[in-house]
Amino acid sequence: MSRARPGYLPFFALVFAATALAQNQGPTGSDFVPLFNGKDLTGWRVGAEILDGKTESADKRFQVVDGVIVCNEGKGIKDLYTTREFSKDFHLKLEFRASPRSDSGVYIRGPQLQVRDYPTVGPYKPKSFRAGDWNELEVMVRSNVPVATVNGKSLSDRDVLELIVRDGSPNATLNGKPVAIANIQVSVGPAALCKCNGEVLESAFKIPAKGGIGLQAETGKFEYRNIRIKELQ
Q: Strand, helix or coil at 20?
């Protein structure tokens, strides 16, 4: 995207697109491994409370009902985590159902992807969202993904960041508007492509190199089922 102009020395141009991650999604066969057995919370924990063989946490914020993990509203935020941590690239699939105005989240090695009743709470607005019904969430984790942030916000596939040297000094623009060089960060590391019903929510969601998968109980009733993962390395 760099253009030579009188008085301008092209230094480098950065265009970060979700397609780079999407084109390398890996296989999608039947070899997914369930993280939830549909019967109890074996393989999960709430803090130090290991829930193997149990159908609910001690505070009842998480319960298994009819093959579904139910996240109940209560005092404060509570998190349900896998007892296992994941360091390899992986493909995670699950289904969720949100009650009106409910707020939950899926933790991907620690950082939380907001999973909510999107039409009323946001922050994402997938057009295919099925209110009061089941929706599919897909998370594709890859290593060595280039990620650019400006003012702490990751750039999407629609953003164009350009850096040039003018009169010996670097100058940057984001989507044609000037930005401060000090507010730009570029890194290469693990990131997740996150989709709801096939629509991109986050093209390169920054995550650590290792961690568990978690579900959040916050506002309203939230349900999860068919939680399965495929490690890609």
A: helix
pLDDT tens, position by position, 77-128: 999 999 999 999 999 999 999 999 999 999 999 999 999 999 999 999 999 9
Q: 2 lies in a domain? A: no
In angstroms, the Cα distances linking 226 to 33, 55, 137 are 10, 16, 10
Q: Structure pTM?
A: 0.79
Domain of 227: which CATH number?
Answer: 2.60.120
Give residue 225's domain range. 9-24+31-231
1 in any annotated domain: no
- Residue at 84 is within a domain: yes
